[in-house]
Amino acid sequence: MIEVIGAPFDLCGMRLGSRLGPAAIRLAGLLEELEKIDHEVWDAGDIPVELRPSTGDGLRNFEPLLQAVKDLREATLTALQREHLPLILGGEHTLAVASVSAALEHYGDDLGVLWIDAHADINTPGVSETGNIHGMPIAALCGEPSGIEGGKDRDWRHLLEALGPVRLRPDHVAWYGLRDVDRSEVPRLKGLPITMHDIDRKGIENTVNMVVDRYIELGIKHLWISFDIDALDPVLAPGTGTAVRGGLTFRESQLVAEILHERLSAPSCPFRLVGVDFVETNPIHDQNNQTATVGTEWIASLFGKTILG
Ligand SMILES: [Mn+2]
Predict the structure, then answer these.
(1) pLDDT-based confidence at 119, cuts 50/70/90?
(2) Structural domain contains residue 169
């Protein structure tokens, strides 16, 4: 059973608007698409979010974020306890700290994370150029120190506390589609970073296989896929907060999803998919809901849709 959970929170990114993402994705027909390929789907609705900005000397809009993180973490844990596969609709990528930390608590640290994104999202408050927490979720999940003193450090510690005791192992992260990485992030890419350059040189099939083979080598048992729509090229998916040109084309991204499905559903695959984030869809910057629609098609392929059925 796929359990859809909306998380319409957008106060810690570059631009407002991804709070409308869950509604746009539902209107694009995500649930119907998954049902068409014989999945049981249950819509758990949206978590309640407080969209009033907060002030203070700490991380920007930290109070409403912390509440949203606690609520989404709880909702994700509940879904996992029901043996459902949570599919989180964002909202901004910050919220992956909630969903992935719930999976870490439920399954332990043999969890792998596939971060499909133009950005590495492994900044810390001490080095972030923008101060936006949506560029820091992997650092938080790995339990990195803030690298700064004062109010921002206090808030960071509160965030890490809210994520529970199990940390993501840095070598268990694979990134796919990177093309806008801060210099300060590079030494922290301890897992497998696949950039657009790698994809251009080696191709989609080889690079996706590299990711899956690495998880097999590491002996992980569970996989979480965190899909930021900005991995796709902005020509195809303009409705997002931090668009970067040179992303995956429609056909490339479809092939990524199809190969992932093939590899993950093979009886010999030693790990299984346990949850998915689908984040950073921002209808305010979109045209005709095309970004949510193309994202929906991607998710459907990840869950087994093929051209010939
Ligand atoms: Mn991201």
Answers:
(1) very high
(2) yes
